[in-house]
Amino acid sequence: MSSSDLFLIHPLLGATDAWAGYLVEAAAPSSQGGEAIQRLCSNPLLNEFDLRHLWFIPPAALQSERFVTVFPTHGTEIEKSLEASLRQARHKVAAKLSVHDKLPATGTWDYLLIGAGHARTLPPYSLLGLSSRTILVATDIQSHADHQWAQANACSLTTSEFLMTRTAVGKKADVTRLKLLEMLGLIAEDANTDALEAIFRQESKLSYSLLRLVNSAANAPRTPITSFTQAINLLGRRQLQRWLQLLVYADPNNGQHPNPLLQKAAARGRLMEIMSSQLGTEPGIEYMSDAAFMVGSFSLLDVLLNMSMGEILQQLTLPEPVRVALLAHQGQLGGLLKLINSAEARDFSATGKLIAAQPFDATAYVDAQLQALSWAAKINPIV
């Protein structure tokens, strides 16, 4: 596997915590990966994304309104030459600040990427003044407090590492979501429709949230789905099960603010489903793609519910390979989940080694990321 072919794509959150852009990071230096990033940016899968969302890409001789080229503040002579040519062509350019860099003068760059830890050491109102002519992107957001601080200090976009942070110990899981876990258990055991409908009658919030979710752009039924029975009839039990798996991440109080974990779980599920098509069969699993989607979508339940994965799985009857993948990251599905975790942690070395152990290469993994992200980006249960 060539390191220049590996790119990791991270959605960026906007003011409403919905996806509003994408940050592309390269394993190889720009001098080695210029052609590879051009191939990525010309991939027809990018046409599936919202054209209003910007892509922040490593240095490459590429000009388009959709892309912002990101340069290190102390680049090589090749990078400086490329930067100058892009500026002359009025292409959008961004600087990625290191922890030792001073803030540039406002307007020097179109965009500025700055780590949350670095930003919080700056004098008060520094970012507010800079934001008058430079759009700020906060990176390395490790906590919910960092995320709130960045939003309050003129950062238009943020990365989402903080989503993996569990809340304080002792907070009880939401009762509605625990009801949904009960329903997921019934579906896993192939319970009849009456038993499932009984859960919805007990929790009307779930019914409303489910209908919003299955009518979202990612699903886009020709005829709007207006009841649980209709959802089963139109989608089928296997497809409905996937939406129920994602429903646990939806706002249980019917609010108008998206939970960014929903799209993250959807992207994980879809990514694992796509990659699982390259794997062989596994004993105990009837449909490998369904099991892969379940592992990906369930992999964030511990964060959402503030419970250990072991506690959660005690309430669900799942195939043993799915349980092993979620608990210990073992087996074929566990290997895929380990790969996703490594990629989201920006560990290029480990990600490259994990891809080398799979029956697909770095190029196929990049394509799978694009397919999964474009699908998850269309999920919008806020209506």
General description of the model:
Helices cover 48% and strands 11% of the residues. With 383 residues, it is α/β, with parallel strands linked by helices. It folds into 2 domains: 161 residues, EAL domain (TIM Barrel, Alpha-Beta Barrel), CATH 3.20.20.450; 203 residues, Orthogonal Bundle (Hypothetical protein af1432), CATH 1.10.3210.10. Strands 1-2-3-4-5-6-7-8 form an 8-stranded mixed beta sheet. A hairpin with a 5-residue loop joins strand 1 and strand 2. It is globular and about 65 Å long. The mean pLDDT is 86.
Write the layout of secondary structure elements.
Layout: E1 7-13, E2 19-26, H1 30-41, E3 54-57, E4 67-72, H2 77-88, E5 93-96, E6 111-115, H3 116-119, H4 126-130, E7 135-139, H5 144-152, E8 155-158, H6 175-188, H7 193-202, H8 204-214, H9 228-247, H10 260-276, H11 288-298, H12 301-305, H13 309-313, H14 320-328, H15 331-344, H16 348-356, H17 362-377
Parallel strand pairs: 2-3, 3-4, 4-5, 5-6, 6-7, 7-8
Antiparallel strand pairs: 1-2
Helix pairs in contact: 6-9, 8-9, 9-11, 10-11, 10-15, 10-17, 11-14, 14-15, 15-16
Features:
single chain, 383 residues, TIM Barrel, Hypothetical protein af1432, 2 domains
Brief summary of the model shown:
The protein has 383 residues and is α/β, with parallel strands linked by helices. 48% of the residues lie in helices and 11% in strands. It has an 8-stranded mixed β-sheet.
Given helix and strand content, the structural type is alpha/beta
Overall pLDDT confidence: 86
CATH architecture of the largest domain: Orthogonal Bundle
Radius of gyration: 22 Å
Number of strands: 8
Poorly predicted ranges: none
Strand arrangement, major sheet:
1-2-3-4-5-6-7-8
Counting copies of identical and different chains, the oligomeric state is: single chain
Per the CATH scheme, the topology name of the largest domain is: Hypothetical protein af1432
Number of separate structural domains: 2
Helical segment count: 17
Helix content range: 40-55%
Output the CATH homologous superfamily of the largest domain: Hypothetical protein af1432
